[in-house]
């Protein structure tokens, strides 16, 4: 069995402004280590699949940067979407490319901007998911909840399957706090980590069955796969595909879904408040990066890109200096950073976007 990792590198990462910008979104930032999240994602696949089997899906603005961050990536393995159409068309594009090489090849679809603390545990789980997928299931990895989180979707799990993994009873939207607490207390819910493993032919059959409105476009792309005409066909066809997530398009409809439990130090690094999950804190609970001086501060995230940053008497606060902009926000409001980007757009402050 050959494994084909597909790293999804689209997205703008507006919750990490002012570090993230249109040309440098979240996946290109060194948030969890000294390397960009995209590079970390590719490197944790070492030993599972060669780089020649790895694909990256992204938009035209980020293509050159993405290619540079994954050393040895073949030119043909950089799949550039002409326009963003959400995850279902992006995954369909990757499945077509793999199917042209290896119809029963197993794809592992991975977000480019997540963190994994236990790489060996992650690799064991992904290898087991690939084994289950080889038998015809579409496998999603469910993350064992560490807390009643309201920022994630959940998967309700059922009985064990003969081939491994468990049945999916239901996919749940992001809950309120009370519901999240009930999910965690019940013990049969996992976080939806957005990681999917499946055979190329199985997923293409699922698209045909559950998203027939995409089939005409996919047929045209499949016919052109591997030919010189493919870029032109992609440019013409892809913008016409429906903009829908793989969750809504396939996962919530298909019957051959299996969920595999994952417990490998996962974090989606969803905001600055999540930085302490992926970086060590000092004795006062502060996470500091760059040239910064803290006095009488506790549980703060302080990131300085270029200048010396001094913070005094602050608690549970995020302070970020990118050189041309400064952000100060309470940690519990860090999800609202995207509103700053919206405000800057409204004021046409394009140099800061």
Automatic annotation (TrEMBL):
It holds the Pfam family ManC_GMP_beta-helix. GO terms for molecular function: GTP binding; mannose-1-phosphate guanylyltransferase (GTP) activity. It catalyses: alpha-D-mannose 1-phosphate + GTP + H(+) = GDP-alpha-D-mannose + diphosphate. GO terms for biological process: GDP-mannose biosynthetic process. Residues 290-344 form the MannoseP isomerase/GMP-like beta-helix domain. Belongs to the mannose-6-phosphate isomerase type 2 family. This is mannose-1-phosphate guanylyltransferase. It comes from Corallococcus coralloides (strain ATCC 25202 / DSM 2259 / NBRC 100086 / M2).
